[in-house]
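Can anyone check this?
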Amino acid sequence: MGGSTAIIGTVCTARASHPSTRKGDVRNLRTALRPAPGLPERARWRYGSAVSNAVRPLALLAVLALVICAASHADTPTRSLQELRRFKAAEARQAVAVDAHHFYAIDNRAIGKYDKRTGERVGGYLEPDGGGIHHLNSGIVLDGRLYCANSNYPGVPMLSSIEIFDTQTLEHVGSHSFGMLSGSATWIDRRDGLWWVGFGNYEGRGGIPGRGTEWTEIALYDDQWRRVGGYGFPVEVIERFAREVAFVEFAGPAVQREGRLEQIRSLTYNDVSADRQVVAAVQAMEAILARHAAGVPNCVVNVNDAAGGLVLYPPGSAEREVLYEGEV
């Protein structure tokens, strides 16, 4: 939201006027937001049938807040990607992770470490036969450690773990087993002091009968790997994932794939800056709703305030709560 200060607030006023409002309805706001045509691309959201009647007026105001946020960024330049150089890496089949000086090409059971300037392979890891690593699927480098999501795909029942490697030596230095969960660990990331892990579900090979891609989810864990939250994907989003992948991979000759990929990248909802605005708006409104449920209505959230990126202020009070420290 640039360098300006915006306010997302007074959404709770609508809830206070509805006689059937319950604290539990706060949890329904997340399911109330769905992609839909008719609104600007940066805020294509509507309230859906999953939300209770008590929260419908709120969801509509939430839509308006998102549209206002989107409109304020109509002049934001579209981000673009420019290929600077390309390297061959035998392990580049599943994922890539990077740090300041190297990139790590990740295959099912192997990792290659490469110099970012020259592309020279300077190290590697290969899982021994009979080891527990079967299907590494992504990676992220933090504080000298490479964290990779691992699963037994296409085996069922689905088993998953996080495998940890020392980036200097690529020695395998740790593992956290999730055991048997509702999906297959496909990626890992770190945000706001928590681990975010994506668990995929599949149609056909590697999937469980009666449990399709709509069971795909994101789970949040603390530093002791205790689950503290999670998110599901609306069916419409899952469908869009499939349609876009199918378009890129199968909608024409293989030699034209890069052009099709660039078409998908150019869509406004794939712009990283647009996604940040939606996430910020939803996070702000959730905080406002939570305060109202606790008996403090009519809070406001300032965006890119002097105290932080998202700062909540209760009415008539000098108290403030920093929801997000970084710039939005």
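Reply from J.R.: I decoded it. The domain at 95-233 is CATH 2.120.10.80 (Neuraminidase).
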